[in-house]
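Hi everyone, sorry if this is the wrong subforum. Our group has a chain we'd like a structural model of before ordering constructs, and none of us has done structure prediction before. Sequence below.
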Amino acid sequence: MYSTAVCPYCIRAEQLLQRKGVSEIEKIRIDLEPELRIAMVEKTGRRTVPQIFINNQHIGGFDDLAALEMAGELTALLAI
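Answer:
Right subforum, don't worry. Here is the predicted structure as C-alpha cells:
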C-alpha cells in the first residue's frame, strides 16, 4: 500500500484490512521517499494515497477497497 504518514484514508484502509484478518501490510511511504511517488503514479496512473495492491493486483484507493467490501468481494480477493 502506497501511503503517507498523515493520511486518514490510509489509516482507514489499514483498519479495514486488519478487520478482515490481514496481519501484514507493506507500506510504501511516498512522503519519505519522493521518487516512490513517481513510481506509484507510473504504476497506477493515480496521484493520491492510498494506492492499494492485493496479491499484485491494483485495487485503487480506500473508496475502491470499501466498495469491494460492500459488494462482498473483498474476502474472496484476500483469500487468493
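For your construct planning: Residues 2-75 form a domain with the Glutaredoxin fold (CATH 3.40.30.10). DSSP finds four helices and four strands in the chain.
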